[in-house]
Specification:
2 copies of one chain form a homodimer. Chain A is of the alpha/beta class. The first copy, chain A, has 12 helices and 13 strands. Chain A is globular, with a radius of gyration of 21 Å. Chains A and B meet through helix 1, helix 2, helix 3, helix 4 and helix 9 of A and helix 1, helix 2, helix 3, helix 4 and helix 9 of B.
Chain lengths: ~375, ~375
């Protein structure tokens, strides 16, 4: 039995400054080590209610249908898309990086006719462009935009499009996997209808859950579906009976992960949501200034840069991958490589959640200087 | 900010003898509290490889495509179904409890024509019945059976059907969510093609992951698909590039949960898989004898009872729900209520993983006697 010889998996220390996961506080990790309990236990159902209530606070919403999908951020994306889309629906999707492309792909799998609003990587999709797409497709079932494009660092404005769609039958779907708790987001005030996130970015909770919220307008659209949702696992018409309703068994909730999220949300609210946004803004801006001082080129559109996720081309004609490997193995710092059109030349640096500190900026810059000198 | 007042979630002590989650050893829980690390970190990729290798040992397979789905057992079910089924396929499903019904539902959502082999709850689906359904539908894409019906306690024989299907183009899909590591399962020897499980049953790991394995025959069917898999999140043609291939990013793996599974699998292999099967068999049989001594009626078919999950009708005309509540709140023991046709009169008692001990049988019986006397 050679397998019995597998050693304990004790992770080496890493400073996580990539596109996710972000650093996780030991308080949150310890919450995942608490003793197991049933997903229908009255004690656990109270904890689940607290998670929902804290998620509403972080999403800035009073939406009834708010919960954590039992899967990673991508499962949140799929939940959002497949519960809204029916075959033949027209869906307008902003595609200016990896994650808009995924929404378009998932919507197509659900049978949608996708109108892709493509923009070069790093650019936002302008509200004007969305408005003109709406004019061309007034019966669109939904418009989907990525609030915080993790592949490019672009910070998509949402407010104007939300106001535009509020007076129509079209829903507004927003991917804020990397946005939530890192930059301002106002689900109710901005008229966002289906909004999902991930835990492993600015919430600083391990990956495995996807916070999601549906407006009343979105719930009404789901209630009027004429076809069954194509996914059994992600079907909110069933899942909401556990989270919001009579506690009917659907699938076993990921208990430990939810205890971790519970503690992570407590930490977010201890800091205060607005203070957290301000911390991300300040640390990220400082970081971007320092990176530019080193002749690195920021790749996201000026005026629309996420503070929590910076993409930049390394100065000179340095090859990024070997340098990134040395950063990890010699300095213990993880950053991400560029994806898509940024592959080979860019880094993605996340200063998210617990990672957004001046000390981390200093440590990263010090390591970078040493690597560039060497 | 009333939310900042949410207290730490410290679970009360419970003895988990329901249909899952089962008790989790502190070693496994502690593994979930280890420091966060990236899902593409070379250290973590080695751990992921070890998880795959240990899963192969537990599944008794050499299947290349073996991994843990980033979701609960139900996500494993959906992964199995949606990657195989294309619209118009005929699928034969044994429906003798909740979980066969779910497979049928999910297959229908994926566009299949479902041939349901219905049996009364608690009965198995006989190999003869499967064989005759195969004669009636020789072009069936797959046959699906539930190895361990968590809703009834029935223990489905698989070997004969596996041998029958091995010589055909039909795939054999098996749900062993409650079976894996609790009763014998031989994926390769029994010619099972798509087999999934959950972590929170006989593996004694928290819920959140679904071990799954695909035979070469199943992989070939997937490679010949003429339509795109309807789910993006669960599409194995993409996911296998992370788990088996070039480590391409698909979605962020649930790191902490995988560290927990890693430790849980180490514990299974320390005990030895066959010793673990024997422990479940012995403890379960003893339990069922004691329960019958108390005039409780076992509801699964004689000769086909799972040792790890027992359904029984309480003696006399006791109402089950109030008694179950007292068992939880006064004795700290969780068991499950009956589902479907067993609702209102039955209990489901799991002696799974770490829970399958003589001491737990004694503690349960002592509490039961007290409640029935009271």
């Amino acid at each position: 039995m050679p397998n019995t010889a597998v050693a304990v998996a004790a992770p080496p220390e890493r400073l996580l400054l990539g596109p996710g996961p972000s650093p996780v506080n030991q308080r949150v990790l310890d919450a995942q080590a608490r003793s197991m309990i049933g997903h229908l236990d009255p004690w656990f159902l109270e904890v689940a209610d607290q998670v929902v209530e804290m998620l509403r606070t972080v999403f800035r919403t009073t939406n009834r249908l708010t919960y954590a999908v039992s899967g990673t951020g991508s499962a949140g994306m799929e939940t959002a898309v497949v519960n809204i889309v029916e075959p033949g629906d027209t869906v307008i999707v902003g595609v200016n990086g990896v994650f808009g492309g995924r929404i378009a792909d998932t919507a197509q799998r659900a049978g949608a006719d996708v109108v892709a609003l493509e923009e070069p990587w790093g650019r936002i999709v302008s509200p004007e462009r969305v408005a003109s797409a709406m004019k061309a497709h007034p019966g669109a079932k939904m418009v989907a935009l990525v609030h915080a494009e993790t592949s490019t660092g672009a910070h998509q404005p949402l407010e104007e499009t939300g106001a535009l769609l509020a007076d129509t039958d079209t829903l507004f779907l927003v991917d804020t996997v990397t946005g939530l708790a890192g930059v301002p987001l106002e689900v109710d005030d901005w008229h966002l209808d289906v909004v999902y996130s991930g835990t492993q970015k600015c919430l600083s909770v391990p990956p495995g859950l996807a916070p999601i919220t549906f407006s009343e307008k979105a719930e009404a659209v789901i209630d009027r579906r004429s076809t069954t949702v194509r996914s059994w696992y992600l079907d909110v018409t069933a899942v909401r009976r556990y989270w919001g309703g009579d506690r009917a068994y659907h699938h076993t909730a990921p208990i430990s992960s939810l205890l971790g999220l519970h503690e992570g949300l407590r930490m977010v609210l201890e800091e205060g949501l607005e203070a957290r946004w301000a911390r991300h803004a300040e640390v990220g801006q400082l970081f971007q200034e320092h990176v530019q001082d080193r002749d690195a080129e920021l790749l996201a559109q000026e005026g629309h840069r996420l503070p929590q996720l910076t993409t930049f081309a390394l100065p000179g004609d340095v090859e990024e991958a070997p340098l990134r490997k040395r950063l990890l193995l010699e300095h213990g710092i993880e950053v991400g490589g560029g994806l898509g059109t940024f592959a080979g030349r860019a880094w993605r640096v996340g200063l998210m959640g617990d990672g957004a500190t001046h000390a981390n900026v200093d440590r990263f810059l010090h390591a970078l200087d040493e690597l560039l000198d060497g």
